[in-house]
Amino acid sequence: MEKDALLELVAEILEVEEASATDSLEDQGWDSLANLAFIAEIDERLGVQIDADELAKAVTVDDLQALISAQS
Fold first, then answer.
1. How far apart are CA 32 and CA 59, in angstroms?
2. CA 40: distance to chain centroid?
3. Cα 6 from chain centroid?
4. pLDDT digit string (tens) for 7-65?
5. Are 19 and 11 in contact (CB under 8 A)?
6. How far apart are CA 53 and CA 35, in angstroms?
7. What are all long-range contacts of 45-51, with beta carbons under 8 Å and residues at least 24 apart?
8. What confidence score (pLDDT) does residue 42 get?
9. Threshold 0.85, pTM exceeds
10. Are 50 and 71 in contact (CB under 8 A)?
11. Among the residues of the chain, which ranges form H helices?
């Protein structure tokens, strides 16, 4: 997934206008519900299954992108 598309997805999940690639997900409002929404959206859009334990280690959008890349 391209970084711009991932940033749009994160913004959609967090219900904000714009997400930052480098700011902490937690500082942007990421929580356990966002984890669930992210797992479902990535599975639906890309057919990639994200491990919840690995997702819990992600700190930034860049980490999310690396996680997607590693799983696909």
1. 13
2. 10
3. 7
4. 999 999 999 999 999 999 999 999 999 999 999 999 999 999 999 999 999 999 999 99
5. yes
6. 10
7. 45/1, 45/9, 46/1, 46/72, 48/72
8. 97
9. yes
10. yes
11. 3-14, 32-46, 52-56, 61-71
